[in-house]
Amino acid sequence: MTLCDEYPYSDTYVMELAKSIVLIVSALFPIVNPLGSAPIFLSLTPDYSGPVRRVLARKVAFNSFFLLVASFLTGSHILAFFGISIPVVQVGGGLIVISTGWSLLTSKDDREHKSEVHKSVDASDLFRNAFYPLTLPLTVGPGSISIAITLGANASGPRHFGINIWSILAALIGSALIALTVFLCYGFAERLAAVLGENGMTIVMRLSSFLLVCIGVQILWNGAKALLQTLPALGG
């Protein structure tokens, strides 16, 4: 007896798994946008050398992976426990994204600061900065979290002992692929800077910061619009 004979629906499950992975990656990659965030990551780490920056990028990638998986698997349950809705998360997170983008957009271009020797970096400071603001909200922000929560809440597939193993596997693989792109884009951001040049990186950073503000406004509006739509129901 072959494996396919013992599990006649295994091919179907594998196809569903592949579709779920593609759905997760295609939904999250444009929101995470590691290519667009790489110049901002570089601008936030001007004193770090290339090897230190790659260590930081690897930490950010790990943080992003666990944050996405946690949002996918337990996000809806945690929000329900605290009585928090996804629109509220979008409003609060949108404000944080707007604040981060605005501070980058209005920051001065200190060229003399860039010419200094790379400072020695304390490991505790490095890993603390790796989560905020580099992982949250720069890389995995409220938009990514809300999408991951939505995907997890609507995941379908066969359940074994009440656990949807296939959706968990899809979340792990899809999040790992997103984290890999984050590491590659952030860890080698200085090569992008070398190609674009100093003026080119300044332009890209300003444009990326402006887009970050716009993304924050859009996330804020999505949450506010969803909350406003509940007002008539409350009034009735």
Molecular structure report:
This protein is mainly alpha-helical and 236 residues long. The protein has one domain. 81% of the residues lie in helices and 0% in strands. It has eleven helices and no strands. The chain has helices spanning 3-6, 10-32, 34-44, 50-82, 86-105, 111-114, 123-139, 142-153, 165-187, 189-228, 231-235. α2 (10-32) runs parallel beside α9 (165-187) and α5 runs antiparallel to α8 (142-153). The chain is globular. The termini are far apart. Residues 1-8 and 111-118 have low confidence and may be disordered.
Strand content: under 5%
Biggest sheet overview: none
Domain unit count: 1
Per DSSP, the total helix count is: 11
Number of strands: 0
Protein structure class: mainly alpha
Q: Report the radius of gyration as a whole number of Å.
A: 20 Å
Give helix and strand order, one letter per element, not per position: HHHHHHHHHHH
- Cα-to-Cα separation, first versus last residue: 63 Å
